[in-house]
Amino acid sequence: MSRSAAILLAAGSGRRMRGSVSDKVLAPLAQRPVFTYSAAAFAASGVADYYAVVYRDRQQLTALAAHAPTPSVLVKGGRTRQDSVMNALAALPSDIEFVFIHDCARPLIQPDQLRALHKIVRRESAVILAHRVADTVKERRDGDRFRTLKRDALWAAETPQVFSRELIVRAYQRVADRELLVTDDAAAVELLKHPIAILENTQPAPKLTTPADLAWLEYLLTRSPIA
Ligand SMILES: C[C@](O)(CO)[C@H](O)COP(=O)(O)O
Description:
Keywords: Nucleotidyltransferase, Transferase
Pfam families: IspD
Bound molecules: the ligand C[C@](O)(CO)[C@H](O)COP(=O)(O)O
Structural class: alpha/beta
Protein name: 2-C-methyl-D-erythritol 4-phosphate cytidylyltransferase
CATH superfamily: Spore Coat Polysaccharide Biosynthesis Protein SpsA, Chain A
InterPro entries: IspD (IPR001228), IspD/TarI (IPR034683), IspD/TarI_cytidylyltransf_bact (IPR050088), Nucleotide-diphossugar_trans (IPR029044)
Strand content: 25-35%
GO biological process, one term: isoprenoid biosynthetic process
């Protein structure tokens, strides 16, 4: 039976929270630290046999260790998100075949979505959770010249992003060799021209990025389900 791991990223700088909380993944959300929602969803789903929790500093390490699912290793984050992911990939046991990579600033992830992603990655080797873009998106070309992107083809990437271990390690090796900066893991896999499956998320699932997101997330977590 193949074994899977989850990399739980908690080392982000939280710069865009503009000092409103000392640590966004440990900030209280409906009375629990933000991090615990992702940890609980993964534990309930049963998709991961092993966890790598990526922390930023010693203070955070102690708090995260208390909430980390088991068995887990705590891994020091790097300067950028991709450095953190690479550190965590290097810390996984050798028998892990599939890897979930999840931003813990996305606390609305659900166990049934994790199970669905797990099923798809076994077939496709690369799958991400994403939602359709509702706005019309403009790309600034130069100065005040814009190009309007074809909305039907646009998806907003979320996490988890799930890959065969061999594929994601090779993809990040390519990123390192070319000294590129990527903002998600799928972008690394795209460099290898490997197809990426999408599991559409039809529910709003914002990433905690700015102070206003906390209230929005709290509302989404505590509201009664809509049909
Ligand atoms: C990976 C990601 O969540 C996909 O939307 C996003 O790119 C992470 O961005 P961040 O700036 O590292 O929070």
